[in-house]
Structure formats: structure tokens, C-alpha cells
Amino acid sequence: MTFSASSPVSFVRSAVDGEIARFVARRRAQLLEIGSELAPAVDALEAMLAGGKRLRPAFCYWGWRGAGGADVPGIHAAAASLEFLQACALIHDDVIDNSDTRRGLPATHKRLEELHERSGWSGSAADFGRGAAILIGDLCLAWSEDLYQASGLELEALRAGRTPFDAMRTEVMAGQYLDMLEQVRGGGAVEATLRVMHYKAAKYTVERPLHLGAALAGRHEDLSPVYTAYGLPLGVAFQLRDDVLGVFGDPEQTGKPAGDDLREGKRTLIVAETLERAGAADRAGFLRRLGDPGLDTDAVEWMRGVAEDCGALAACERRIDDYVEQAGTALESGLLDGSARSALADLVVAATARKH
Amino acid sequence: MTFSASSPVSFVRSAVDGEIARFVARRRAQLLEIGSELAPAVDALEAMLAGGKRLRPAFCYWGWRGAGGADVPGIHAAAASLEFLQACALIHDDVIDNSDTRRGLPATHKRLEELHERSGWSGSAADFGRGAAILIGDLCLAWSEDLYQASGLELEALRAGRTPFDAMRTEVMAGQYLDMLEQVRGGGAVEATLRVMHYKAAKYTVERPLHLGAALAGRHEDLSPVYTAYGLPLGVAFQLRDDVLGVFGDPEQTGKPAGDDLREGKRTLIVAETLERAGAADRAGFLRRLGDPGLDTDAVEWMRGVAEDCGALAACERRIDDYVEQAGTALESGLLDGSARSALADLVVAATARKH
User: Which keywords fit this entry according to its UniProt record (chains A, B) (predicted)?
Assistant: First the structure.
């Protein structure tokens, strides 16, 4: 297998993609034996799995390699299992948020809603779409575990991996719940927002996948502090970059309309910073527009201006820089295998580079 | 541990209840460390787990005992893990069906909706309740696996158990999806309804838990045909009994309003039989009333009369009797351990006895 040091994600991606495709093909056959009407559900599940940057598998894989693990198929499969967990999180998240699109395509519940409409079935198409998406997400969650267990790694290794694997799932669901709470409490203060990011992004996307890789390689004890020191700041920086792009990103690069997070009213850190820093009049105008689905380009421009002028954008960029530096420093640990260290350094850039 | 042969479910129940309580207490502590606002979510999860007849754990336990397994805590924990899977299924099912009550109490999404209302939070209380219930169900599904893996049984045994454990989860979700399809297609023909029952009830509630017990005891190969021969007819009979109670049951015994399934418009087998057997006028009147949430006592009485007069009720009772007999015959296999055989015979009675 060739390895391009400049692209530690794409190196893992093709192996992970192969594991996902083989696993879904096996399960598709099993489901179609139960009933051919299940095909659209598997199609929707597969479509959701086809997208994505495979960031969590990449961190899991390089966490394993950093612990001295070899490039064997078992770790590709175990890493791929995280994509099924992520697919569940996204499918259910879209139902929870009533988001109709995901990566520029119809969300899973929308796909099934459209199937209902096309088929002329009775009852509410929206209810059907939502119900089907809940079940498809459940399948993804169950299959995540199945693929992990069927990865072919040693039973003892899989048992050692359970501590981060279990924690990861509980934490991401807790983080989502806290996120929902923040939205309805209209809180969105900087501290509260950072806590949600800690669980929903930093631990879930970066730290726990690294811990999993280390644990599978039997190195949880000595390496997890290194991976925490690297993963937590990187994970927050990654989410901050995403939040900044959600407000300032170029639609051509993000695949989402400009200022989409503002239209959705997401209580991200850049919003929290803006609300804490802007003057009273700007703050009121910003709050009034936030979450208005009909925001036009001028309104988005105005809100961007407020976020920039009050220093919220700069504060976020400063945080990203700080966190990126912290992550880099953590990589200086002598415990890490050399090629993995350079891949992990590249992942910092891949996850946090400015694209606007 | 004392063992009352007349009550194989209650024998298992206290051990299973203990495992559930200990596991939830550990996870509650972990969640409260993340944030004290998570307490209502854990309360709702625990409330859902507090109910239930522990039928699936009982079948798993007796499947293990029938295979010669000893009465050790590991099998109680592994059996208890099935209750978390079931809690996920029920919580998500109530969201999917918009059912506001479960066992006479508010459904999980209703509990969280009420929390939203009491707290005066912003946004839609119904959306919050639904979103929170999706996440709480996800937690239950993840925890089911965690408890299974942490049961303390040997790693090799747990690996052997994965085949039925994995199949069970895929089948129940597929069964739920097919059930949703039947509802919106307005199908509900006898054959289609029996297929849903096969996956959603017979395999999920009885056959797979028995298979799991046998596999954990290293006896999947020789015992699973026996358990299939016993479990599939019993599972259908169990669901049929439930369906009959949903139409004819006494509210004092079922904990649900009389004729609740008719009000909800559930396409159960007794409904399918009625629609196939009743005369044109009765059929039309039955269909018109089916699914009307405002059905009064007279209308329920009239529908019961139709189901009885056309022979649908008798046909269901005949099926139950046939299936019960088939299950009993399967128990004559010489492969089963003696005390388990008598417990499994008692479970037939417990699961299918007339209560109306």
C-alpha cells in the first residue's frame, strides 16, 4: 500500500471505504431476504455512508499506528465502524433539527418522505420519513458495533477498546442533548458552548477515536494522555473552523448556502462571542435576524459585519491558532511512532485550515 | 437462590432488575459528571426500563439453562442487556407512532416535552421531546451492547453470541420498518401481517433470545433448531394474544383504554382477519371507524361485535391454540435440560394465557 504523507486521511479513506462497502453489501443481502421493500432503506443508509471525510476513522487508524500497530485490515474495519456511529448521529441529528439537506443532498428523512409521496401511500409523508430515518439510524448504530466486533482484531484487543468505544457513544449522545438544551434555553454563552464542543466535537471526533486506536494496540494507558493533549484542542479547533465557515464560508467550498448557520440559528461559538462583544444595538439586530430562515444576502452580510467588527471572528481565529499550537506541542511526545506523528501533524492542518 | 417453577419469569426478573439498576447507576454517575442537566434524560430512561415483563431476558436465560448453562451472574447481565434494546425499540416506536402513553404513563417524548413546557424554554416543546427521546433511545441501544460486553461471560462465549445478537437487532428494526410500510400502504392483509409478526415479535421476542442463550452456552448449533421450533410459534401466539387484548382486553388488566388498538388504527392480525371475513357493509363501517382517535364505547363495542360475529376472534384464538401446541411439541426434544424444559413450558402459558 502506498502512503502519501501529505494526505493521511485519503490514505485511510480507501481502505475504510472498502470495509464499509463490503459490510453494507452483506447486510443488504440479509435485509433483502427479509423483504425486498427494505431496499430503499438500505439505499438511504448507504448514501449517507458514502459521504464524509472519514476523519474519525483516520484518527482511530493513526492512533493505532502511533501506538506501533501495523497496517492490517482489522484496524481498517474497526476504524470504519466509527463511520456507522457517525451516520447514526447525522441521520438522527437531521431529524432532531428538522434539517432537510445534508452535504447538499436530501437528508435521510427527506429521502424517505419523498419515497412516500412518490408511492402515493396513505398517512403523513413527513411522519413516515421521520420514522424510517429513526429506524435507519438505529440500524447504523447497531451495525457500528457489529462491524467493530467482526473486524478480525483479537478478542482481547477488542475488549481493551471498549472503554473508549463505550465512552465515545455515551458522550456524543450526551453532547447532542446538551446542545439541544442550549438551543432551547437560548443560552449560547461562550462557556456553555465550549462545553458542548468539548463533548460533541473534541472528544467524539478526535480524542476518543485516538484513544480507541491506542487501546486496540494495547497502549491505552501510556498513550491516552498524549492523545488527549493533542486531541482535545484539535477537536475544538476543528469545530471552530466549521463554525466560522458556517458564517463566513464560500458556498462553493462548503456546499451550503452562505451564512447557513445564521439562517438555522445555530448557537455556535462565533455567535456566542458576537453576542457577548457587540454593542447593544448590534446585538439586538443580530439576535432578531438569527434563526430567520428567510435571511437574504444583505442581512447575512450585515451579520458578518457585526461578527467581524466586534472582534468575534478574530477571537475565534485566535482560539483556533492557540489550539492548533497546543495540539502541535503535544505531538512532540517521544512516545509516538514517527510516521504517525507526521500524519497526525498533517491532520491538524487538514482539519483546521482556513478555507474562506 | 430459590426457584419457583411456576414462575420462570419472576425468577429471572429480580436478578435482571438488579443488573439493570447497577448498570444505570454507573452510567448515571458518568452522565452527571458531563452535566447535571442530563438528570431528566437518565430519569426518563430509567422509568422506561422499570416497566416490562422481562420476557426477552427470561427466554435468553432459559435458553442458556436449557443448554446446560449454570445460574451465574454473567447470564443475568447478558440477558438484562436485551431490556436496553427493548427500551430503545419502545422509546423510538412511541416517537414513530406519535403514541403519548406507554404502560399507562407518559411516553418518553411526552415526559421530555412536559419538561420543556414546565421549564418555559423557547422553541417547540414537541420537537424538543421528540429529539430528546431519539437520543435517549440511542443511549439505550448503545448501552445494551455495553452491558452485554461487560456481563463478565467469557470472551469466546460473547463472540459466539454475536450471531443471534446481531441478527436480532437487524431483524427487529427491519420488522418495524415493514410494519410502518404496512400501515401506510393500508395493506394489512393476513399474510403481510404475519410476516411482520414473524420478525417483530416471534424472532425478536422469543426465538433470538433463546438462540442467544444457547450460543452463549456454546450450544447454538445443536439447540437452535429446537428453539426455533418452540420460539417462532410461541412468539406469534404471544403477539396474537396481545393483539386480541388490544381489541377485547379489560382496561383494568391491560392498563390501556378499552379497544385502544382500534382507536390507534393498528393493522393487527385480528383487524386483517376481520377485514377479510366481514360482509361488505360491516367491513366498510369497520374501516371507517378504524384509527379514529375519538371512538366512543359504543363504537368500540360495535367493532368488537363485527370481529366476533365474522369469526375473526375465533380464528385468532384457533391460531393461538395451534401455535401453543406446536411450541409444546418442540419442547419434547431430548436435547433440553429438564428444569429448563418445565420453565419453558410455563413461559408458554405466561405469554399466551387469555386475560379477557
Answer: Magnesium, Metal-binding, Transferase
